[in-house]
Amino acid sequence: MIQLKNKLSLEEFLSLPESDSVYELVNGEAVPKYKNEQMSPKFFHGSTTGSLLIVLSKWAQEKGRVVVEWSVKLTRNQQDWIPIPDLTYVSYQRLPIDWLKDEACPVTPELVVEIISPGQTFGDMIEKASYYLQAGISLVWVVDTISQTITVFTSSSLPLTFRDQQIISHEVLPNLQITPDEIFKNAGLRK
């Protein structure tokens, strides 16, 4: 764990050396994304990430990028915030197809996906989803691999939880229609 005495600037955080741990910038501090070994991603989390990546990448082929654990430059409570969603979708309208830099996402993505890890709670994810929406992200999906649901958060409506064969679609993601059943079957978590 990185020990800090002073608050980090955005530049200082982005220039920290890579390590085996994943850190997010929160209130000027480098905070581990996974606070303990219990929280680190396991089979359900990893296979669900893979399933979502395949489905979203196929849909986004001509529309934008879908990236796993890509840090995003945002603002939270008037401070720089660098979260690392499990999946991020950003359209080519927001970040041109010819953009190619090895850095944090420099624009606000349309969609971020957070998959609840062991040791995290749905309440933790609701709080994080509200920060994402306040930062200007249009859609936040919180995926619960235990209940096998996907809860969709937007700034214009109450959260909606999708199960089984319920179709998830939104105008921000034109022509995308997926179901939790499809995602969890492809992840090998459902027969």
UniProtKB/TrEMBL annotation:
Name of the protein: Uma2 family endonuclease
Q: Which Pfam families match?
A: Uma2 (PF05685)
- Judging by the UniProt lineage, the source's domain of life is Bacteria
Q: Which InterPro entries match?
A: Nuclease_put_TT1808, Restrct_endonuc-II-like, Uma2
MF terms in GO: endonuclease activity
Keyword list, A-Z:
Endonuclease, Hydrolase, Nuclease
SUPFAM superfamilies associated with the record? Restriction endonuclease-like
